[in-house]
Amino acid sequence: METKKQNIVILGAGESGVGAALLAKFKGYNVFVSDAGKIKDKYKTELDENAIAWEEGGHSMEKVLSADEIIKSPGIPNSSALIKEIRKVGLRPICDIEFAARYTTAKLIAITGSNGKTTTTYLVHHVLKGGGLLAEMAGNVGVSFARSIIKDEADYYVLELSSFQLEDMYEFKADIAVLLNITPDHLDRYNESISEYGKAKMRIIQNQTAADVFIYNADDKEIEKQLKTHKINAKTLPFSLKDESVEGGFYRDEDQTITIKNKLTMSIHDLALKGKHNVQNSLVAGISGRLVELRKDNIRESLADFTNVEHRLEFVAKVNGIEFINDSKATNINATWYALESMHNPTVWIVGGVDKGNDYEELIPLVQEKVKAIVCLGKNNSKIIDAFSGIVDTIIETQSPVEAVGYGYQFAKKDETVLLSPACASFDLFENYEDRGQQFKNAVRSL
Question: What residue ranges define each of the domains in the chain, with the CATH number in brackets?
Answer without folding.
Answer: 7-93 (3.40.50.720), 98-305 (3.40.1190.10), 314-445 (3.90.190.20)
